[in-house]
Amino acid sequence: MKDLRIVFMGTPDFAVTILKHLVDHNYNIVGVITAADKPAGRGRKLNESAVKKYAISENLKVLQPTNLKDESFLNEINSLEVDLQIVVAFRMLPKSVWQLPKFGTFNLHASLLPEYRGAAPIHWAIINGENKTGVTTFFIDEKIDTGEIILQEEINITEDETVGTLHDKLMYLGADLVAKTVNAISEGDIKTKKQPDLEEKQAPKLFPKNTRIDWSKSITEIYNQIRGLNPFPAAWTVINNNEEQLKTKLYKVRKVTEEHSFEFGKIISSKNELKVAVKKGFIIIDEIKIAGKKKLDSKSLLNGFVFSENAKML
């Protein structure tokens, strides 16, 4: 079972946990493919991916192709005599790469496919108010996240779940599912399932445009958006305070349903509490980052920052 020669492809911390699970359980990882080093920070020092750092610590062979169709790269993979490739949070592969291994190439996706195909499935499940999600393994084909499903595992989303907490739950769930998938493939015990052609619930990339808070939306929509973007990349807004406009990110929040006559976006602050008026209630802010300041809990912010009588979130 564990003699299959496996190449693992991935880049961020999410992928590291899956790779570590395979290594810890003695699967035969003959190569690791990850993103090329990128300059980062003021000194433009080359930054290695999380997967590369881990792979080197385990003395695994690392490949960092800039062009996945490059002949020398394809020759190098061929030389590894790969039986199976596993992809976790990497990039789209050309057919010449994904069809290469004897047992194919499968991907781990952090949703219950066919729902939430795309780049940010964990975020969008929370933003859209879902009460369940999961992880899926599927064989890669020509399109993105459309291949035949191998296995799925479901998990509940709690009402106060953030993308940070759900990300970690799905990461460990995914590690188990990848191992189960490898076992099933090696034992010839798989029955794949074709994905229905659904286009309803997508998980597009996150940009400033789709992460800005619209204070005219319902209290539940706003609450879901903020927790679905906490802690990364964080929902944002602009505070208008004494004619000064400050870009602001919101992190921990609560919602309180209550009738009121304030206009939407109005900031109500006291010594110990910061809240924003929305339809049929208030969003209570527990953690916030105003441009030029550190991320603070609201009580700490209110110790030194004064909101004007007409302060508003735009």
Please describe what this structure looks like.
α5 runs antiparallel to α8. This protein folds into two domains: 6-202, Formyl transferase, N-terminal domain (Rossmann fold); 208-313, Methionyl-tRNA Fmet Formyltransferase, Chain A, domain 2 (Roll). The protein is elongated. It is an alpha/beta fold and 314 residues long. It starts with 5 loop residues before the first strand and ends with a strand. The chain is built from nine helices and 20 strands. It has helices spanning 13-24, 50-57, 71-79, 95-98, 121-127, 163-186, 208-211, 219-228, 298-304, and strands at residues 6-10, 29-33, 38-40, 45-47, 62-63, 84-88, 105-109, 117-118, 132-139, 149-156, 202-203, 235-241, 244-250, 253-257, 267-269, 274-278, 281-285, 287-290, 296-297, 312-313. The strands form five sheets. It has a seven-stranded mixed β-sheet. A five-stranded antiparallel β-sheet has the order 19-18-13-12-20. Strands 14-17-16-15 form a four-stranded antiparallel β-sheet. The model has no long low-confidence stretch (mean pLDDT 94).
Structural class: alpha/beta
- Which CATH top level class of the largest domain fits? Alpha Beta
CATH topology of the largest domain: Rossmann fold
Radius of gyration: 23 Å
**Separation of the first and last Cα atoms:** 58 Å
CATH superfamily of the largest domain: Formyl transferase, N-terminal domain
Gross CATH architecture of the largest domain: 3-Layer(aba) Sandwich
Low-confidence stretches: none
Number of helices: 9
Apparent shape: elongated
- In round numbers, the mean pLDDT is 94
The tally of structural domains comes to 2
Reported for the largest beta sheet, the result is: 7 strands, mixed
Summarize the amount of helix as a percent range.
25-40%
What is the ordering of alpha helices and beta strands? EHEEEHEHEHEEHEEHEHHEEEEEEEEHE
Strand content: 25-35%
The total strand number stands at 20
- Biggest sheet strand line-up: 5-2-1-6-7-9-10
